Amino acid sequence: MVIPKVLRHELDWWNINIGNGQNIKPELFSMEIFSDASPTRWGASSGGVRCHGFWDDGERQMHINLLEIKAAFYALSLSKDAEHTRILLRIDNQTAISCINRGGSIKYSFLNEAATELWRWCENKKISIFAAYIPSSQNIEADRESRSDSFDTEYQLNNTVFGKILQEFGTPEIYLFASRIKTKCETYVSWFPDPGSLSVDAFTLNWTQYFFYAFPPFAIIARVLEKIIQEKAQGIVVVPLWPTQPWYPETPSASQKPCPGGREIIRRAFLKRGTPENAVSIMMASITEGPLKQYSASLKKYWDFCQNKQVDALQYNLNIYLNFLLGILDSGSSFSILNLYRSELNLILNPISVANIRPPTPKYRVTWNPDSLLEFLGKWYPLETLDLEKLTYKLVTLMALTSTSRVQTLSVIKLTNISKSGNTLQIKIPDRIKTSALGKPQPVLIFNNNNNNNNNAFIFRSKKIGKRYALRQPFNCIFVKLLRCVALNRTSY
């Protein structure tokens, strides 16, 4: 038989949960919640705590039975922190009660979907619910909340203006003083209990951990600005142009833009480099949340530093870049912290772009063929007849060609760091050289002696010949200076 798609989810649920036994013994309800719905809003109460919310334009066109189920769902926000508990729902609509207790409706799909959504939320919270009838005349508090005409907190900017704010200041991470239908961010803090909100009452949170957006009621603007100043938080606050208000001098200068957050700074940096808009999201996905939080703190400091200097934080400026790093160093930070700031700034700045102004020239315009040199050195044979100088030149040259090592590396080779195993000669370089760096392995030179490589065979034999010279003692270096102090290319074996 063919199973309709609408039933597959239900069968999948039973397949997963059929082995999860539950105690069917009646338990005492730990919480009682009253809810009610009107054509314009919903209301709820429990233990003296009340909350309400408005319907959006689409919801206002819905049937009252559906709104009653939604009101019961939103009323469960009063138990948002509760888990592994049993809740009694008091509703004055029999159809809503029937749909909730049965976990859906077989007659109306829209009622079935609403009841299923409610039960999924309860299932994730390990909450057991039961709906019971209460006459409207007794559902006083919930009814009052669903019919109040107070619209003090339900105003917002239209989407066009809000979009311009995002273009100018960046995308906020959280919306403060919002509601379910008012929020323009996925994460928001509501005035009253709300199933979708992160928390209730934004003043109870620490704002420094977010790049926030707030459009507070006029009566609390002074309190909002005071909290921002005390916590040194950064975000977007929409207030009226009202110079006569006592809080107006506390608003920041229009010339100073608040830090838009680490993610937005990186996104703008990619766009400034000419990265296509559709590719930026893919590039941003490569930065996980953990590193992004680490980057955000450093990028915020650099943003604030550039704002104080009145320069563009996304435009590479060598003096600003170095002065910022010097300030980090002068604050007592270690080398690792300084290096961390440097690498994170390189994520948004592009010092390489300086090459467009003054392109570098190749260090070597041509390369030479070593065959003629090898042919010349091949004439220095047999080895036993060579003097010390020729033997040294030949050994240094062949070691440089076969290992591609710098002359400085060859100059610090020591006898005690040379080991031989079978046909392999291994030379360790523990000394600090130009290519040394913290956390970077020191070089190890490997020479394999085989019949197809006469040059490596010469290196093996030279090690033995060198031991014959009395000049070796008491030095440990394999190469020593010749008759006078000269450059490294005048060294002797």
From TrEMBL:
Q: Which InterPro entries does this chain map to?
A: Hepadnavirus_pol/RT, RNaseH-like_sf, RNaseH_sf
Membrane-spanning parts: none
GO MF annotation terms: nucleic acid binding
Name the UniProt record assigns to this protein:
RNase H type-1 domain-containing protein
User: Which species does this protein come from?
Assistant: Exocentrus adspersus
